[in-house]
Amino acid sequence: MTRYKMTMAYDGHLFHGFQVQPDQRTVQGVVEDVLKRMTKGKYVKVEGSGRTDAGVHAMGQVIHFDYPQREIPAERMLPALNSQMPTDIIFTNCEIVDDDFHVRYSAKGKWYRYRCSLDHFVNPFKRFYTGHFPYPLDVAKMQKAASDLIGTHDFTSFAASGGSIEDKVRTIYYVNIQEDKANNEIIFDFIGSGFLYNMVRILVAMLLEIGNGRRPVDDIPRVIAAKNRLEVQGTAHASGLYLYHVFYEDVPAKYRLDLQ
Amino acid sequence: MTRYKMTMAYDGHLFHGFQVQPDQRTVQGVVEDVLKRMTKGKYVKVEGSGRTDAGVHAMGQVIHFDYPQREIPAERMLPALNSQMPTDIIFTNCEIVDDDFHVRYSAKGKWYRYRCSLDHFVNPFKRFYTGHFPYPLDVAKMQKAASDLIGTHDFTSFAASGGSIEDKVRTIYYVNIQEDKANNEIIFDFIGSGFLYNMVRILVAMLLEIGNGRRPVDDIPRVIAAKNRLEVQGTAHASGLYLYHVFYEDVPAKYRLDLQ
């Protein structure tokens, strides 16, 4: 038995999310099916660093699994899996890791990106790959407001109901909001110790309200203190969200705005 | 009866091309269905500046149609149609034109773009939107070779069989081949008086052979002179091709390399 850690990208728009569900096409399900073929019928459980919802993408999702048969060198496992993947999944890295490595428990941080198109109409080429906000936005205002997210807080106000996790305390290390003028998009980057269910999409929805002037720029400390999901009504659309990177080493100092 | 000229973009990956076909989802078919609803059942024929094949995209396709009912101002026709379009079609401009305007016969030139990804593997996010060539390429060599395409030639060697057009003489005004390093792509631009069936995709396939060193850089005059489709075996994949712009005014002088 050999434990493999693999990094993958996927276009989420034709998946019902990462996690296996009966009769639905999921990322975990597709990878487990391929591993089952490779092992001639043995079930190999795939563990992900986190679930992504239907329509959410990954540039750097990480999985691990225990391959029950003769060890395959990592540099051969990578093309072996890629050659059997559908075109909306690609593995970009493969390592053999110790048995005490766990893709979820060993993670030290996660990076999510949100792409928001500012096009007047929904751009046909971006409809699966961005959110959409065709209204006035003040990026400097959003960036200013976002600095109030940095640090360790109880993020109950930003967790969708339905999550089963009791402890809603997380640390946000880094938030950056920038215009991509060439593509007429706003790019939101969030790095933190972890994120609650729908938390990034709720944060984006709130920041867009601030950037649009519908919510005061200094509202975030109040919303955090309220610990009430009803404080933020919106949830940005899944199509703009990317699990961008998972950190298994310490998050680099340049992204630790909470320590500055 | 009022003639409308409309410019549109579409993501071609879920269409069986532009032209109406029985039991297939086509761009023309979708637009005609919407016009039929607007006119409460009257058939309104949509004419396109040219057909695009299954999987081919448009940034600037142009259509015309004769609206049989009370004239709707152009600035109202645009949102009226957009509000009923599926998300993979968008109209970007609308004008009321004279009855002697014809989207095909009035065109003075066409601009096609081809995006070719150089990623090692097929990138999940680009699989519907680029061709793919993960081999060494010398862009300067392709650009040098492409200059032999400029001018008026019989392009029989570059026309897929199946086209019904007898006259294979066309004028290519402009070819540009550039690297898009940020996206790891090569962008091919072709502007000409018109293009034969599959001509752009065959030209791209040939230029990639030249850039890869499998065909001499000075081969194009010989291939043109041969007037034999068997001279170029390949056809670049439909997914990378975009009908980028149709000129109804004279093609600007900066794109008339044939006159320099």
Automatic annotation (TrEMBL), chains A, B:
Q: What is its EC number?
A: 5.4.99.12
Q: Which reaction does it catalyse?
A: uridine(38/39/40) in tRNA = pseudouridine(38/39/40) in tRNA
- InterPro entries cross-referenced by the UniProt entry: PsdUridine_synth_cat_dom_sf, PsdUridine_synth_TruA, PsdUridine_synth_TruA_a/b_dom, PsdUridine_synth_TruA_C, TruA/RsuA/RluB/E/F_N
Q: Which Gene3D superfamilies match?
A: Pseudouridine synthase I, catalytic domain, C-terminal subdomain (3.30.70.660), Pseudouridine synthase I, catalytic domain, N-terminal subdomain (3.30.70.580)
Q: Where is the Pseudouridine synthase I TruA alpha/beta domain?
A: 9-106, 145-249
**Keyword set, alphabetical order:** Isomerase, tRNA processing
Record's keyword annotation contains Isomerase = yes
For this entry, the protein name equals tRNA pseudouridine synthase A
- What organism is recorded for this protein? Lactobacillus corticis
Underlying gene? truA
